[in-house]
Design goal:
- The two termini are 18 Å apart.
- β2 (29-32) and β3 form a beta hairpin.
- The chain has 97 residues and is α+β, with helices and mostly antiparallel strands.
- The longest helix has 14 residues, at 42-55.
- It has helices spanning 13-25, 42-55, 70-74, 90-96, and strands spanning 2-9, 29-32, 35-40, 62-68.
Length: 97
Amino acid sequence: MTMVWVVYDITDNTTRKNVARICLDKGLYRVQKSVFLGTLNANERDSLALECEDEIDPDVDSVYVFPMDDESFRKVKLLGQAFDKKLVSDEVLTKFF
């Protein structure tokens, strides 16, 4: 399992909702309106990317899937309000602290 960030910029509301639903269905947690975080194995990560690719218009939309190793993830700096830690699983939070 690898920590994964999904970040997107999507113009159409329906497409944006569909991509958000894909992320939620994969067990990711919304940390901002267009940012999700969670752990996925390689197959789940590939499946997520393919499902998102089927939804978006590649001429105007973008979806980034960033895998991150544990060492790099522990170096993430949370500034300001960051995200609602109550919405993120203990598994994800333990990697922060």
